[in-house]
Amino acid sequence: MRRSKFSESQSVAILKEAESGLAIPEVVRKHGISKATFFAWRAKYGGATVAELKRLKEFEQENSRLKRMYADLAMENAAIKEVLSRKL
């Protein structure tokens, strides 16, 4: 999947411009994005601040780290149970 040339914080800044009263067609033309992109961003980031996005990204990273830890521990636990069941 192709990466956007705008970061999340830039997307939020562009949305804030439109919220401040600038017409959407002007904002879209100024930044060289399509209306579809603008409305997709608004659906995804609507009402969010840069700090909230940063916090959300940190939570997502921590969540993925915890999921990997859980998967590793579950595999260890299954292996230990298998070994113990053979001994009995």
What does this structure look like?
Helix 1 packs across helix 3. It is built from four helices and no strands. It folds into two domains: 1-48; 50-88. The chain has helices at residues 8-19, 24-31, 35-45, 50-87. The radius of gyration is 22 Å and the shape is rod-shaped. The protein has 88 residues and is mainly alpha-helical. The model has no long low-confidence stretch (mean pLDDT 91).
Could you give the topology of this structure?
Elements: H1 8-19, H2 24-31, H3 35-45, H4 50-87
Helix pairs in contact: 1-3
How is this structure best summarized?
The chain is an all-alpha fold and 88 residues long. 78% of the residues lie in helices and 0% in strands. It folds into two domains: 1-48; 50-88.
